[in-house]
Amino acid sequence: MQKLVILMLATVFSIGTLQAKEKEESKTPPPKPEAKVSVTDHSMRIDGTKIDYVATAGTMLMKNDKGEPKALFGFTAYVKKDTDLRTRPIMFAYNGGPGSASLWLHMGILGPQRTVVVDTDFSDNGPFKRVTNEYSILDKADLVMIDPVGTGLSHAVGDAKNEDFWGTDQDIESVASFIKQYITENHRWQSPKYILGESYGGMRTAGVSQYLVSNYMISLKGIILVSPFLQFVTGFDFGQADLPHVLFMPSFATAAWYHNAIADKPADLQTFISQAEKFAVEEYAPALMKGARLTIDEKQAIADKLAAFTGVSASYWLLSDLRVDHQAFLKELLKSKHMTVGRIDSRFKGYSLDPVADHMRYDPMTSAVGPQILSTFMDYYTTDLGVKDVSDYKVFGDVFSKWDFSHKQPNGGFMKMPFPDTGVDLAYAMIQSPKMKVLVQQGYFDMATPFFTTQYMLDHLKIPDALRGNISTAYYMAGHMMYVNPPSMAKFKQDLAAFIDQK
């Protein structure tokens, strides 16, 4: 009996010890987040000149002020071999969204490989083709493609959450911090530095340029705004605010011109654009400003002219109180043909998902181009660049609906503005760094960030007249991603190279 009791006590003690050990092991912290990169050697030819370079693809570990890990930032860097890093320019680039990875610019125009896209049409469903990119910027500058947190392979770690990075100011701070850390770890403080941002990347770039010079004393040689979105108020035409409708209207005209939806179509697009802009400013805007004071006859006259410019009936304009938002327009323009026109590039068109719907249900341009770029990028990323784990790669993170758009503008004191305008940041950056150059690249058939909206933003920058010469603009016969159009692709590279070469 005594032996039995001893045995039972020993068993209980063993079980208790085992449970205590398991409990202790359960408290063991998870492994520390670790940056992982793949480094590969490559060579290519641009205009007959051989370029040997090193590609580094993977993640960089970012830490907070306490030295605690907060994010793994995905990036791909291309650095030319056997060159003086102090004089070799370096360009940081990204797309927008917010919530978009940088594969569009990466495989579309900037990187050493590019996707062969069928312009304005849907391609066969694979296999898709990629080729050596003769329009890459690597002959002029080293290149670092960045994926902000929540896109690509970038994600929060430690106690941080992805949502901590999802906001105008949070995004600006994190990307600026990445750039500072990259140039520190890679000995690029002396390099002439450029930033290129597309779409919402324009809002990011304007903010980052100001943040870098104000907080880190990092000056930029130049920034490139591709199809930029900088002002929330002028960038959306869904409400009753008059200004966005005025700024979008010339883009309606270019889409109608392209699709032969207007009577007596002028042969020259530039002349037609000038006429549309003149009407928008001198007649359309004053009419909208009148509101209920606009007479029936005046309203009919404006509707008739809108119909003549846009190919959408006067009756539709009247039913919409002379305010048709762009998604309704893109659905209405070719509605009789059961076709929807592209938002990212209004030269594209596709069959309507719902012919009687009053707004577009999808973007034909994204559906046509997206699968080609993603497929070729993933193939390139995992084979040529040797990145192993891409199972969590995110083209579009679940970001936009959770984005904190409020912004602490540099002229706003401690108050945050509910709707961002980083045009203010851009003006401050240009004033604080008066040698910094700005290149704006804009497509005429862009309905996401219309060309007249971009021009309005530039015209209203609060900078000294002497600094306006630092801004140059280039326009293309294509849309938001103008580089899917072969002639525009060549012009894009030419304009960008000339911008970097200028003294």
Automatic annotation (TrEMBL):
Residues 1-20 form the signal peptide. Residues 20-39 are annotated as: Disordered. It comes from Shewanella yunxiaonensis. InterPro entries: AB_hydrolase_fold, Peptidase_S10. PANTHER family: RETINOID-INDUCIBLE SERINE CARBOXYPEPTIDASE, SERINE PROTEASE FAMILY S10 SERINE CARBOXYPEPTIDASE. Keywords: Carboxypeptidase, Glycoprotein, Hydrolase, Protease, Signal. The keyword Glycoprotein applies. This is Carboxypeptidase. The keyword Hydrolase applies. It holds the Pfam family Peptidase_S10.
